[in-house]
């Protein structure tokens, strides 16, 4: 049995776990790339940061994506242009900000930061995350909702997510005014 056939068999048998694992992979690879090729500010590679991002992919992105996109497909079935446009609109105006709140909230929690730190992060970076998302996800989701089978949506998203996660990893780990230096923050 080939890799693709095996993946699809596992996806059919355990869709939530497989989607969570693909999100773990996408967020992990995205952070490794971000730390090694984007954040070249002289800091050493931080494996705990990668674990935090990967665990977000596994625990939050994969699971919520499974349910959200399943719900969206059940309420708006089909691939007519109006249906696709509606799904993209819902994804980018409702889900995108919710996702940003979850992303920054999760990192805030696992880093042991305060609720005030979370509010500052939201005020500082949520708008950037949402608007940055539009450049990537409006065209990506137009393809996703028009051409990708529902069972493959999260795999497709996670394939693109690897590159997008470089941006998210950078933004999620960017210091907000008044925040401690990198080495002074709490670990997972």
UniProtKB/TrEMBL annotation:
**GO CC annotation terms, alphabetical:** cytoplasm; membrane
Residue intervals passing through the bilayer: 50-69, 89-109
Output the Pfam families linked to this UniProt entry: Mpv17_PMP22
| Localization of this protein | Membrane
Protein's UniProt keywords contain Electron transport? no
- Main localization is membrane
Q: Which UniProt keywords apply?
A: Membrane, Transmembrane, Transmembrane helix
UniProt-listed InterPro entries:
Mpv17_PMP22
How does this chain sit within the bilayer? Multi-pass membrane protein
Q: Which domain of life is it from?
A: Eukaryota
- Answer whether the UniProt record assigns the keyword Transmembrane to this protein: yes
Q: Which PANTHER family match?
A: PEROXISOMAL MEMBRANE PROTEIN 2, PXMP2 MPV17, PROTEIN MPV17
Q: Which family does it belong to?
A: Belongs to the peroxisomal membrane protein PXMP2/4 family.
Write down what this protein is called. Mpv17/PMP22 family protein
Origin organism of this chain?
Answer: Skeletonema marinoi
């Amino acid at each position: 049995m080939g890799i693709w056939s095996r993946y699809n068999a596992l996806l059919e048998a355990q869709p939530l776990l497989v989607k969570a694992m693909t999100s773990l992979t996408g967020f992990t690879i995205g952070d490794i790339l971000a730390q090694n090729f984007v954040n070249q500010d002289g800091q050493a590679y931080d494996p705990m940061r990668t674990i935090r991002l990967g665990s977000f992919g596994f625990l939050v992105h994969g699971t919520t994506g499974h349910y959200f996109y399943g719900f969206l497909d059940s309420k708006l079935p089909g691939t007519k242009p109006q249906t696709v446009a509606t799904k993209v609109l819902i994804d980018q105006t409702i889900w995108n900000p919710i996702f940003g709140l979850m992303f920054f909230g999760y990192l805030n929690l696992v880093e042991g930061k305060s609720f005030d730190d979370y509010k500052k992060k939201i005020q500082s970076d949520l708008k950037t995350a949402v608007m940055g998302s539009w450049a990537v996800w409006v065209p990506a989701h137009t393809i996703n909702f028009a051409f990708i089978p529902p069972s493959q949506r999260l795999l497709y998203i996670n394939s693109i997510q690897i590159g997008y996660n470089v941006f998210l990893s950078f933004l999620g780990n960017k210091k907000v005014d008044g925040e401690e230096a990198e080495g002074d923050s709490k670990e997972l």
